[in-house]
Design goal:
The protein is of the alpha/beta class and about 260 residues long. Helix content is about 40%, strand content about 25%. A hairpin with a 5-residue loop joins strand 2 and strand 3 (about 30-35). The chain starts with 6 loop residues before the first strand and ends with a helix.
């Protein structure tokens, strides 16, 4: 007999809503996904939740909610008891930043590694967030729209990239960020495989150059899936940062489970 889900885990990013039906023992019993407008995420989630009936609440990150200012813990110390609980994003005035579910992945990382002191690079489909974590808190963070730029340039078309073209473009832009537009322009006349790799490398190089204060000399964990997360790992490894790679969904669910536990 299939158990009834104990609660629903939800994640909204870049126009896509994902829901997971979670058993009391933490197992994923079912999952579903679909598009949702930014101004109707909660309504869409509640409608979609009907396909995954659960005895407990839905915890949803990435939806619009009042933000918490850093420095602070990734998640609030206690969650409310409403049927739909929104994870509050983090906000920072200088440099201006607002998280989109990265706070939940950071909480998941700390749930797995409570003594972690370093930087979490959370790679999303539109935005990458770099979060400096220390003593269980987010000290500072910054977002980069690299995923959105990559999608706008329609590259890469798969997760495997031509390494030589990638490395050349990344090294060029990492050393001289002002060459980003020139490197992207030169890539447009390459064959498709090299074009994809050079575009990804150039954008990753620009982000790594701007995020240098977050990763230089730090313990870094890259959280994410797909080509851009792999690019961050390869780029950081080439700079001697030796990052640790973590898949996105397990840490998302670990973070939401932490918030679920705080309200029970």
């Amino acid at each position: 007999m299939t158990p009834t889900p104990d609660w629903i885990a939800g994640d909204y990013r870049a126009g896509t809503l994902r829901l997971f039906a979670i058993a009391a023992d933490g197992r994923i019993l079912a999952e579903t996904a679909g598009p949702a407008p930014a101004n109707g995420v909660v309504e869409a989630a509640q409608l979609l939740m009907g396909t995954l009936p659960a005895s407990g609440p839905m915890l949803l990150c990435g939806a619009d909610a009042p933000a918490r200012a850093v420095p602070c813990t990734p998640l609030p110390s206690a969650a409310d008891a409403s049927p739909t609980r929104l994870v509050p994003p983090l906000a920072q005035r200088v440099p201006r930043a607002r998280s989109d579910g990265a706070e939940t992945r950071a909480a998941g990382l700390l749930a797995r590694r409570p003594d972690f002191d370093g930087v979490a690079c959370v790679v999303g489909p539109a935005t990458t967030h770099w979060l400096h974590l220390s003593a269980g808190e987010v000290v500072s963070f910054q977002g980069f729209a690299t995923g959105a730029l990559l999608a706008g340039l329609a590259a890469p078309r798969d997760d495997a990239v031509e390494e030589a073209a990638f490395d050349t473009a990344l090294d060029d832009v990492l050393a001289r960020p002002e060459r980003l537009a020139a490197t992207l322009g030169a890539a447009q006349i390459d064959p498709p495989a090299q074009q994809d790799a050079a575009t990804l490398g150039a954008l990753a190089g620009a982000e790594l150059a701007a995020a240098r204060p977050y990763w230089l000399g730090q313990l870094v964990t890259v959280i994410g899936d797909g080509a851009l997360a792999a690019a961050m790992n390869r780029g950081l490894d080439g700079q001697g940062a030796s990052p640790r790679a973590e898949a996105d969904t397990p840490l998302l669910l670990a973070g939401l489970a932490t918030m679920r536990a705080s309200a029970t």
